[in-house]
């Protein structure tokens, strides 16, 4: 295992703290290219399990953020999207010191649900495959008094 850490690829910006549970991935990064959004991080001690590879919980959190944000990018306004279902296939380890990033390849928005599928990759090597279904709320009951609106805008890139 090398002690050298991967560099953050060009075009990625570090996200600020203050994003709730998402802060557990810090430092983590986002890149926006049109409607496409990618997230990533270098696997560090705080992301690793006892085997010194990326903890599955970190990978699942990253996938959830990427899937929901990818759907939000297709909506007229960013909203909280409760996860209905999120499935994962662990394909290979996220190696310590390596850059992992999301790539979404399917986003569908219907009347009440959003669907998304993608992969977390280490270079061109797939680490985790994910697919999810998210509820598109038609009421303000999810966020009382606008709570969370600023964080959603920051994640989706609508600062």
Automatic annotation (TrEMBL):
* Gene Ontology molecular-function annotations: thiolester hydrolase activity
Q: Where is the Thioesterase domain?
A: 52-125
Q: Which domain of life is it from?
A: Bacteria
CDD domains cross-referenced by the UniProt entry = PaaI_thioesterase (cd03443)
Protein name, per record: Thioesterase domain-containing protein
């Amino acid at each position: 295992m090398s002690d050298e850490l991967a560099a953050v690829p060009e075009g990625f910006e570090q996200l600020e703290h203050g994003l709730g549970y998402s802060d557990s991935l810090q430092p983590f990064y986002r890149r926006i290219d049109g409607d496409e959004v990618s997230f990533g991080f270098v696997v560090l001690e705080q992301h690793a399990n006892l085997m010194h590879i990326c903890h599955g919980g970190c990978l699942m959190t990253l996938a959830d953020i990427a899937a929901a944000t990818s759907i939000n990018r297709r909506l007229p306004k960013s909203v909280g999207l409760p996860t209905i279902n999120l499935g994962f296939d662990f394909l290979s380890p996220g190696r310590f010191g390596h850059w992992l990033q999301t790539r979404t390849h399917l986003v569908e928005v219907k009347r009440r649900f959003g669907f998304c599928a993608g992969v977390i990759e280490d270079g061109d090597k797939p680490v985790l495959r994910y697919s999810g279904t998210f509820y598109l709320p038609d009421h303000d009951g999810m966020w009382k008094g606008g709570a969370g609106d600023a964080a959603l805008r920051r994640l989706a890139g609508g600062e």
